[in-house]
Design brief:
The protein is mainly α and 215 residues long. It is built from 10 helices and no strands.
Amino acid sequence: MGLQRHEIWVDLGLSGLTKWFSGPWGPGASTPGMIAEIADWGDGGFAPLLLEDALRVLDSPLPTRTADTVLCAALGRAYGPDFDGPGLLRQIVDVCVARVRRDDPSFEPVPPGPSVYGGLGGEVLAEIDVAGPALSAAIAHAPFREVPGAVRALEQFVTEVDPDLGYRLFLRAMKVYAVPITTSQYERYLALGERFGYHEEVVDDGNLQSPTDTD
């Protein structure tokens, strides 16, 4: 069911949705309608991983405000009490379940088990630690897109939700806030992406800032 992650050459799952949500949409586009269009990508092959990501966040012990902070950073929008992350995630679940059932009417969603990528959490946290000061500065100086505490929230997300999804959302924030990286960071990002089984364009879709030195 669904596509294998290495077959998805666009940003996948929930991080992919945050990318598409930040792009241009036609007048009158509704949130469920946008989610449905995204879930239908690849003849519905995108829906299972998007569903898994949303369920993983909803079923995690991560505080709602922390999860919302991460989502806002990935979306490039200021955090505020009007942002309803759990409501968005539940809409994603409903739309994705409906899309999967078009191909498998007997499908019933189940909470995802422990991440198979738990062993990579330390490496993701190390990359967030290196990039954290620059990411925090970029967010603080982005008018109308300030998300206080985003770096700390990303660290908690990696630890309490999933290193895989946490890494993808970290990369999305780095792209949204145009944080420059070094050649060595760039190479490590690609190598870590390979270990997660990503297509290389998930790591660098053209929006990751070009390395500025070779340190």
